[in-house]
Amino acid sequence: MSNEMLTHLGRGFLAGAVLALAPGFAAGQATESVTYAEDVAPILQEKCQACHRPGSVAPMALLSYDDARAWAPMIREQVSLRIMPPWPIDTNVGIQQFKNDLSLTDEQIGTIVAWVDTGTPRGDPAAEPPPVEWPGWGERWTYEDIFGRPPDLVVTSPAYTVLADGMDQWPNLEPVEVQGIEGERWVRAVELRPIDPQSASVFHHGSARVANRAPEDVHQGPGTHAVAGNRDQLAEAAVGVQGSIFPEGTGRLLKEGDLINFNPHFYPAKLEEDLDDVALQVGVWLYPEDVIPYPTEGDVVFDQTRMPGMEDTPLLIAPHSQATYRSAFRLEGNARVHAIRGHMHLLGAYNVLEVVYPDGRYELINKLDWDQRWHTAFLYEDEAMPLLPKGTTVIITSVFDNTENNLANTDPDQWITGGSRTVDEMFRLRLGMTFYTDEDFARLVEEREAQERIVRRSDG
User: Fold this and answer.
1) Which is the most buried residue in 26, 133, 144, 383, by most CB within 10 A?
2) Domains in the chain, start-ordered, CATH in brackets?
3) CA 275 to chain centre
4) How far apart are CA 28 and CA 113, in angstroms?
5) Which has the closest alpha carbon to 284: 353, 181, 365?
């Protein structure tokens, strides 16, 4: 995070915390019979099969009636508790308008529960929707469905051999030069992925960053800050996060001769022998050549362990305890937030983002319930993107659970410190942010206020 944008205010503090349990869903009595063919299959196609199919990330397929029937009791439990589809956010507080909402509606949950409780009837097979033709691995990029075309550029990392020693590995790969760009081009979206299922089996998360050949060659965009630098963040991916689609009219810069540094984290816990030729690739969608969008920061990382003032408050979690860390920062620029994502490890319970505006108003933006298995990036709807004027105080709270009640905890008898290993801990909050001049930010605020007036009139 750039020092120009943020001034650290607090030292953070360590305290006990009581973890709130997510409420379950109590389904009502079914008023009419439901069947797999007419009611359940469409829900599974829309919300489940992208992951629950061969070659994807889920442990079992849900492509047919026989698949769904075999797993019906587990499906009922998982959807009733809102564990699946994964949407780890507190739906009772904060902003709830997201472009990529995977969650089921109350009605959809009620339909699945009623179907299981009435004996999983199939109904008329002829009424089932035609099966989705899901692509095989590498046949199509995720963002192709959004942009209607494959990426304009694809850059592949050098190959790496992951050792079967069960230890986390962070290889330093040789940078790769971007090919196919003349002059300067602006990036609309980026997607990062392992090149094949074998690479995906050991991929924990990773990033692709831009390294300029000439560090002094800095391009000034239409905003208030320089866009290029010696190492710009371009894309990051993990299970549940494919990359970034920047808001319409904003982008990041690539230049002829730029290098891409791949920074993967491999976790080979289940490898029985070394795995050769593991690699990543990044796909880049570009704006047309004549389009110069507003420069966006992309992901701004609020890393509490690395901010000034936190040196005397290291991350340290005692055995059989819960712990809360909190830090506050002051924005030195006007920001629009288009995405939010937490990052913790096995002991993570939840993150909270709060703000105090310069005029003293307080807002709880979101509470993110952490799930180590699924690293969700929550993408705000355009009309819900937080607008934070300069001088806003951003408050980050991270809560950890080092007890036996945390099912992800491998050993609650251990003291846990901060670090990069999976068994260490982190507390980071990533905000997709664009910083605006005073004039441009005032325009965004006026547009938001006009939109809200229209909504109020339509509602009443």
Assistant:
1) 144
2) 3-127 (no CATH), 146-296 (2.60.120.230), 299-445 (2.60.120.230)
3) 27
4) 9
5) 181
Cβ 43 vs Cβ 104: under 8 Å: yes
The residue type of 138 is G
Residue 228 clears pLDDT 60, i.e. is over it: no
Residue 460 banded pLDDT, cuts 50, 70, 90: low
Between 204 and 45, name the one with better pLDDT: 45
**Residue-level pLDDT at 56:** 81
